[in-house]
Write a structure and sequence with these properties.
A four-stranded parallel sheet has the order 1-6-5-2, sandwiched between helices. Strands 3-4 form a two-stranded antiparallel ribbon. The protein is globular and about 55 Å long. The chain is of the alpha/beta class and about 220 residues long. The structure holds zinc ion (2 copies).
Length: about 220
């Protein structure tokens, strides 16, 4: 049925609305403008970062792996799937990331953990959950939703200067009794300043995780 509908209404390129949509929601022209990063990018920020523009040193995660730079057509694609407008593209992205994870040679995780969302999911669609599912199948590891967040500061702990600088106002913590070990794959949609990823990774390390690898769609 969906093939029939596609024939009548071919899905449009998410960026330029052309009818030549090819893969990952984009037409060949827009796809060519995407700056793919993957394994060729910086391990600290997941980008082809110019000197001096990287993530702060001393973060809790071991490495960031991102599909592409968060700009141009790719920004459109990621926003499109974040807001649940196109689930077919969302699934394609999740599979692409899982394939990259498989190709990365990173140590397989004992758990796949989603970064907790800041707000409600758009129309009950959760791109991070979809990504976790694909990564968990690839890794043969369970999804463990052990990270939680709430607005405000942790009790009796002042947010350090770096946290304030990066605008991390949420308090990230693990569910009571959480015990992890070995490698953990942490999953988020977009990596921006790294403050959230760092807070999540640190919370996971405290519960016994050995190393935390972060997977995102864009950085
Ligand atoms: Zn296009
Ligand atoms: Zn970097």
């Amino acid at each position: 049925m969906s093939a029939f509908i596609d024939l009548l209404f071919p899905p449009l390129c998410v960026c330029c609305r052309s009818q030549r949509r090819q893969q990952l929601g984009l037409c060949p022209d827009c796809l060519a403008r995407v700056e793919l990063t993957g394994l060729s990018a910086c391990i600290r920020c997941g980008r082809h970062c110019p000197p001096g523009k990287c993530a702060p040193l001393g973060h809790g995660y071991s490495r960031v792996l991102s599909l592409a730079a968060y700009q141009g057509p790719w920004r459109q694609v990621v926003q499109n799937v974040k807001f649940g407008r196109d689930r077919a593209v969302a699934r394609e992205l999740a599979r692409e990331l899982a394939a990259l994870a498989k190709a990365s040679g990173f140590p397989l995780p004992r758990a796949v953990v989603p970064v907790p969302g800041a707000g409600k999911n758009w129309r009950n669609f959760d791109i991070i959950a979809m990504m976790c599912k694909e990564l968990a199948v690839t890794a043969g590891a369970p999804i463990q939703k052990v990270l939680l967040r709430r607005p405000g500061r942790p009790p009796q702990v002042e947010l350090n200067y770096k946290g304030r600088l990066e605008g991390l106002e949420d308090y990230i913590y693990t569910a009571e009794g959480t015990m992890l070990e070995g490698t953990v794959w942490l999953v988020d949609d977009v990596y921006t300043t790294g403050a959230t990823a760092d807070a999540c990774a640190r919370a996971l390390l405290v519960t016994g995780a050995g190393r935390v690898y972060l997977f995102v769609l864009a950085a």
